[in-house]
Specification:
alpha/beta, 10 helices
Length: 349
């Protein structure tokens, strides 16, 4: 029998993935904000949606996030803990959550309250209106990180988009909506050094953005430091393909041209302008040697980074490893039987 045209459309089923590193103070408030979305609600365009599960991926941070995850999973049936074997970082933790999800759509968001769950409906509307498999939140306000970090972030994204010519490069954000089958596929094959957003761009048909207002981080300072941000940037460069290797060729050509210009300048100064005077070239020679050796070592370093990525992939280094909650396994049984009497063994017949 053909279903009636007046029947209510099936709601879009959503899984929310939250990588957790320092979420002890913020996770409970975040889950409370998500709670109304676990019943069928309507997006701004009137489309029904429901959050079926919230996956909290424990990435072995320095606080008591693990206990908070256990409390929330015991309180809310829609909350699930995903336990990693060690600290892998935000992107691998996000991939682990994607791999463990079951929704038609996957929403990834931070643990610190900066991302408003109420904006999920707008992200979904954008995906359906534009038929996009990946939608990034596009901040309508300056990110609450300070001028220098925001400037560096915009500069690095421009470099990847223009200089490295990465495919499907938009304004990357950790607040994103991904078609479930796309997210789970990326989580299945992405290598240990892959940058999540670059990997999504490899297979996503249409990547777009949706305007969202960012909020202040709640309860703690950002866990990102200069070293972490530089590591993210370098991973983005390596994941964008072999275009970074073109920089090595560019440096070689640039220094070859510079050497030719210096040779012409020395010949011209000797033959035309300063005939008969002694040519003193030790200082310029040392400068040229220092720049030349510096460029050579930098080029070798870039090549070595690409070789290292391929070696790790060939050796099978996983981007993440999901395990059971350590509290439920042998590591959770820390009690001693020193003061207790061991049970008597039953003699065999």
């Amino acid at each position: 029998m053909t279903p009636s045209s007046n029947a209510a459309p099936e709601p879009h089923r959503i899984s929310i993935v939250v990588p957790v590193y320092q979420g002890e103070r913020t996770l409970a408030a975040l889950v409370d904000e998500i709670l109304p979305l676990t019943k069928i609600t309507l997006s701004p365009a009137g489309r029904p949606l429901i959050v079926e599960e919230v996956l909290l991926v424990f990435d072995h941070g320095p606080d008591n996030s693990a206990d908070r995850i256990r409390e929330l999973t015991a309180t809310h049936s829609f909350v699930r803990g995903v336990w990693l074997s060690r600290n892998f970082g935000q992107h691998p933790a996000t991939l682990a959550g994607m791999a463990s999800s079951g929704g038609e759509w996957i929403v990834t968001m931070d643990e610190d309250g900066q991302h408003d769950p109420a904006a999920i409906g707008s992200l979904l509307d954008t995906a359906l209106d534009r038929q996009s498999s990946v939608v990034y939140a596009k901040p309508t306000n300056a990110a609450p990180h300070g001028m220098w970090r925001n400037t560096a972030s915009r500069g690095s994204k421009w470099l990847i988009a223009k200089a490295m010519a990465a495919d499907n490069t938009v304004s990357y954000q950790s607040y994103r909506l991904v078609l479930g089958e796309v997210g789970r596929s990326v989580a299945a094959y992405a290598g240990s050094e892959a940058y999540l957003d670059v990997a999504l761009g490899w297979i996503a048909g249409d990547v777009t953005t949706s305007p969202v207002a960012l909020r202040e981080e709640q309860g703690r300072r950002s866990g990102y430091r200069l070293r972490t941000l530089l590591s993210h940037f370098w991973r983005m460069v390596l994941s964008s393909g072999t275009k970074g290797l073109r920089l090595v060729s560019f440096i070689g050509v640039a220094f070859a041209l510079l050497g030719l210009v210096l040779v012409l300048w020395v010949l011209a100064s000797y033959l035309l302008f300063d005939l008969g005077s002694e040519v003193r070239g030790w200082a310029s020679t040392m400068v040229i040697l220092l720049f030349g050796f510096g460029a050579t070592l930098f080029s070798l370093g870039v090549v070595a980074e690409y070789v290292g990525v391929n070696v790790k992939t060939a050796m099978g280094k996983p981007p993440y490893l999901i395990v059971a909650d350590p509290a439920d396994g042998p590591l959770g049984r820390t009690g001693s039987t020193t003061n207790s009497t061991p049970p008597e063994s039953t003699p065999s017949a």
